[in-house]
Amino acid sequence: WRLVANQILMAAVDTPDLNPYISEEVIQGVEQSWPDVRKFIEISKYRPPLYPDCWQGYPWAREQFYQSVANVGVRDLIVLTGDAHEFWANDLYAENGSKMGVELGTSSVSSPTLTEYLGSGTKDYALLVTKENDEVRYYDPIHRGYVALTITKNKVTADMIAVSTVTEPTYDVFTVASFKVTRDGETVQFKGAKGLGLKEWLLYKGMA
Fold first, then answer.
1. How remote is the C-alpha of 144 from its chain's centroid?
2. Strands 99-105 and 87-93
3. What's the pLDDT at 32?
4. Cβ(77)–Cβ(69) under 8 Å?
5. Which has the closest alpha carbon to 190: 90, 51, 113?
6. Cβ neighbours of residue 27 under 8 Å, at least 6 residues apart?
């Protein structure tokens, strides 16, 4: 297995156009915790990178990395990513369409998630981001937690573990979602998922 420790999101992820979906009432509610939300929604129609300081903001550099590893016959990356305070399961592709591997992103244990800003709308936002980005198979900006990897000869299992609270000494730990990664020729693929809701499952399978 070829594991790559990576600090920021590597997949190609753009901001979906939020203008058709967000009402003035919702904007006013979010503005209390996120004063710049109106500007963010207006700019979203141009589909900028979701996080401009991640690899999507530097696509040439990402392509150079992909080509460098491809030139030595490597197309089976399992990229392990943090920083975003969100759970991710992403496919990774070079500009020529070659599959380069997969990405597993972990949430944070104590830092805030997107629910601090979007509240009850966070779930719908996550589904929209997944739908509008081909490389995104699963996206959870709601739960705090960590990713636990189980690595065997034939598969890698990623369990996305959430904690119920970070403000109390007593807390529960539970699995939000699980993904299985297996070899597929020269690359690796997601071959199974557990714990997904119906809409998440349809998006994961590319059926929605």
1. 14
2. antiparallel
3. 84
4. yes
5. 90
6. 37, 38, 41
> What gap in Å lies between CA 43 and CA 19, rounded to an integer?
9
Q: Are 68 and 104 in contact (CB under 8 A)?
A: no
Q: Of 10, 136, 162, which Cα lies nearest the Cα of 84?
A: 10
Distance CA 71, CA 194 (A): 35
CB atoms within 10 A of CB 173: 10
- The pLDDT assigned to 136 comes to 98
Count other Cβ atoms within 10 Å, centred on residue 170. Answer: 6
Chain centroid to CA 99: how far?
17
Place of tokens 């591997």: 101
In angstroms, the CA 24 to CA 187 distance is 45
Instruction: Specify the DSSP class assigned to residue 44.
Output: G
Between CA 44 and CA 51, with CA 48 as vertex, the angle to 5 degrees is 105
Cα 163 to Cα 130: distance, rounded to the nearest angstrom: 23
The pLDDT tens digits of the residues spanning 39-66 come to: 999 999 999 999 999 999 999 999 999 9
Return the structure tokens found at 58: 């530097």
pTM of the model: 0.93
Question: What is the residue type of 56?
Answer: Q
Task: Look up tokens 């597929």; give the residue.
Answer: 184
